[in-house]
Write a structure and sequence with these properties.
By secondary structure, the chain is of the alpha/beta class. It is 36% helix and 22% strand. Keywords: ATP-binding, Cell membrane, Membrane, Nucleotide-binding, Transport.
Length: 343
């Protein structure tokens, strides 16, 4: 049994004009110590998926169906009191903006001690010793001094290290990192991600990394999910997806990386933009932007515009794409014919 199992997760927002599907039939697992990346454009549903795991969806959002199971327990059916024992204790979260996460009127030490005392019965002296140890682990210079400082006295990189230290305070089984390096420059980004990777490997902590940066995902994660318009459209081993992407959307994301463009030429881009979740296209949500919607005869593939694609197995990956399904069927047919002619 996996440490974390997400089965057929369905999240909706009840708006005045009707319900909006933010997540549809999302499925994935996370093993103990495994590193999973979730990628996609803004609006794909990455952060909603992360917040759903701990039932942190704010109203008018709600989990309409499916289940989230952690270590055999179903989180989305737990009481708020029972969930508080899991949040921050066994599953920690690193949010996008450290200045929004840290309380500006409390010192770093006060915030760390408050977190520890909320989950453990320990003295202030013991809590301070644990907090100091975690600051050493995230390589904060002069940690004794930092404990008595306030968030505004620290740089962006230091604040993010503080957030990681707080996430590690209670030795969690899983850390969910939602765009943890968004507000940082490139050099600091690399340092933070290397630190996070080192700490997860050292403590055997599972990591769910939510980002739009495929470069970071390729360096840090072992498996990845690609999301589009609230659905998972491709998932499998990170290295396999990066080296041989199957879904046209995944191919577009990788081709849009700066290093994939010819020097002096325009960067590659996926035409169009993410559709509104309140007005999704019929069939495959990506088909209005897809360069492979036409069949070999030049005519649009009817299934793409009429049917939501199911998953097909391609190597060690799962892909939700009608074109990929056709290619797999064609390969199987050609192979069967070859065996018939050459028994």
């Amino acid at each position: 049994m996996a440490l974390l199992e997400v089965n057929h997760l369905d999240v909706r927002f009840a708006l005045r004009l009707g319900e909006v599907h933010a997540l549809r039939d999302v499925n994935f697992t996370l093993e103990r110590g495994e590193r999973l990346g979730i990628v996609g454009e803004s609006g794909a549903g990455k952060s909603v998926a992360a917040f759903s795991l701990l039932n942190l969806i704010a109203k008018p959002g709600f989990i309409a169906g499916g289940e989230v199971r952690f270590d055999g327990q179903q989180l989305n059916s737990m009481s708020e009191r029972a969930l508080r024992k899991v949040r921050g204790n066994r599953i920690s979260m690193i949010f996008q903006d450290p200045m929004m996460t840290l309380n500006p009127v409390l010192s770093i030490g006060e915030q760390m001690l408050e977190c520890l005392k909320a989950h453990r019965r320990i003295s202030s002296k013991e809590a301070r010793a644990i907090a100091l140890d975690k600051l050493y682990q995230v390589q904060i210079p002069s940690p004794e001094t930092r404990l008595d400082q306030y968030p505004h006295e620290l740089s962006g990189g230091m604040r993010q290290r503080i957030i990681i230290a707080i996430a590690l305070l209670l030795d969690p089984d899983i850390i969910i990192a939602d765009e943890p390096t968004t507000a940082l420059d490139v050099t600091i980004q690399a340092e933070i991600m290397a630190l996070l990777l080192e700490l997860c490997e050292k403590h055997n902590v599972g990591l769910i990394l939510i980002t739009h940066d495929l470069g970071v995902v390729s360096q840090v994660t072992q498996r990845m999910l690609v999301m589009y318009a609230g659905r998972v459209i491709e998932q499998g081993p990170t290295r396999e997806i990066i080296n041989d992407p199957q879904h046209p959307y995944t191919q577009g994301l990788i081709n849009a990386l700066p290093q994939m463009a010819t020097p002096g030429e325009k960067l590659n881009q996926i035409r169009g933009s993410m559709p509104s979740l309140s007005n999704l296209p019929s069939g495959c949500a990506f088909h209005p932007r897809c360069d492979f919607i036409n069949r070999a005869d030049g005519q649009p593939r009817p299934a793409c515009t009429q049917q939501v694609p199911g998953f097909v197995e391609s190597g060690n990956c799962q892909v939700a794409c009608h074109m990929v399904a056709e290619l797999i069927d064609k390969e199987a047919t050609d192979e069967a014919r070859l065996k018939e002619t050459n028994p």
